[in-house]
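## tool: complex_structure
## caller: assistant
## args:
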Amino acid sequence: MLKYTVSRLFQAIPTLIGVTMISFLIVHLVPGSPVYTMLGPKATPHMVALFNAEYGLNLPLPVQYVRWLGQVVQGNLGISYFQNQTVMQLMSVALPRTLALIGLAVVFAHVFSIAMGTYQARRVNRWDDHALTSFSYFFYSMPTFWLGLVMIMIFSFYLSWFPPGGLANPGQPPVGFVVWISHIALPSITLILLTVAGWGRYMRTAMSETLVQDYIRTARAKGLSEWSVLFKHGLRNSVLPLITFVGFSIPSLFAGNLFLEEVFNYPGMGLLTYNALINHDYPIVLAAVLIVGVLTVFGNLVADLLYAFVDPRVQYT
Amino acid sequence: MAVASLPAPDAGGPIAPESGRGLGREWRSFWSNPLAIAGISLLGFLLLLSFVGPLIYHVNPEATNLLDTFAAPSAGHVLGTDALGRDELARLMLGGQLSLEVGFAAGILSVLLGTLYGLVAGLAGGWLDAIMMRIVDILFALPGLYILLLVDSIFSPSAILLVVVISVLSWLGTARLVRAEVLTLKQREFVHAARSLGSGTWRLMLRHLLPNVMGVVMVTATFAVGGAILTVAGLSFLGLGLPPPTPNWGGMLADGTNYIFQNAWWLIYPPGLAIVAAELGVNFLGDALRASFDPRLREGRA
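## result:
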């Protein structure tokens, strides 16, 4: 197990280097330097040269990459071109908000999709299985941004249950748990619905494959309670695809989150990135690409390791 | 009489196609699947709406009328009008053309790229395969959407650029699937036979392997088209996709967003439902194709 963990960790390193290299290259192959965006059309050549020297933009690309990587490893993600703050400062405020949103969704999506998948697996091809499958198909096919809009329309405009967005009531500082929950409710419910629709389908397939296995029949024959048959014997095997699926879902969770934050004007990493994209504030964009890339590598790593841990058949080599 | 109890060779499990012909069984199972019919109907409806609709519904989608803005659906404007008094249904039809064209083009191009890459990697094997798949692993860890947004914010996007960038960022899954297929096919007798008869690499790839991976390719192509339609809509919704003035579903939705609190629901529901219908159609069709053509499912795994 230890050997497998170590070898898997070493495999992640070239992937991580590749991720940093590609993200860096894309941003730095941009035609037209950020100088002109920042200093405006009236910039003199002298100002441009000073700016380039200050940000190290006049060095050869490989040198810039190594310098940048050295800084990144130390936790320095550069300075925002426009906000006069370090990217780290901006991210340290925005990222926890995003992680709260995604974390809530992942936790609840697990609970609901396991419950839904297990229920459907026991009722395969009955009317309620078909109803839940239709529900999954419908939400699975729904664009994040549109479901977000519909949620605002229904729960904010028609019913006035929740504020349509932001993180605080207008003109007031964000105070208290109730204010926070009321603002995070709609985006989280949107994300949960969409995630459950995807994961529930996988759980249903996995669970219905497990429930016809001999050892499940044995467990039932032993007179175990239905609960322990399903959740002790069944779940352990059918949760495997879900684990890997969650690891692979990280990019799509963050992608969905970007739309969600834009629709709900939720000031997390997605909105920060979106605004940076519109303003061509590339250090922020680069940091966001990097953070999501690293989280993806990490998610796949954790998924693989968990898989090996849960499934005794996986060879630790 | 042990021999008699064995099933006849062609009575038991399905026999996989060997040369691309003989897919009749799969197509029959496909056409008898209600999901396939539902998917084709939905996509057919959208294609009709977008491409035939304007021939029947003669309202100029570009004509503005500032005296008739935010008109609710009525006989004159079946789906109402937008902030500039333009007819929403006419724009939905015209927007559908661009959304579907770009989605189909990007999805199909991405599958072509992925299929070629997977074929080459799987057939080459050895170190070339190892390097090629390592590259795929690295690219998989890249947040595709963020990169897409980045590219679109740098270059002013056009339909062509979107098709290219979306397909360049989305071929990875296809490549993995096709390679895995090729790896199993390589062990089969007909490939050995073709090799021993002197088939060159290209001939082997195009004549013998490609027809056999077509099932997997069709399935991924369907989902790739769905993904591309969604991506184009999403990018346009963020204002980083298809540029105005030609309407598209994502952009129309973005326009409608500003008027939610004026209760202009006809600007929110129709374009969104059009995207949902396209995605539903693609997901139905893809699942139906998978149920009939995916060899792993065909062997009765689920």
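## assistant note: The mean pLDDT of chain A is 80. The first helix of chain A runs from residue 2 to 28. Handing back to user.
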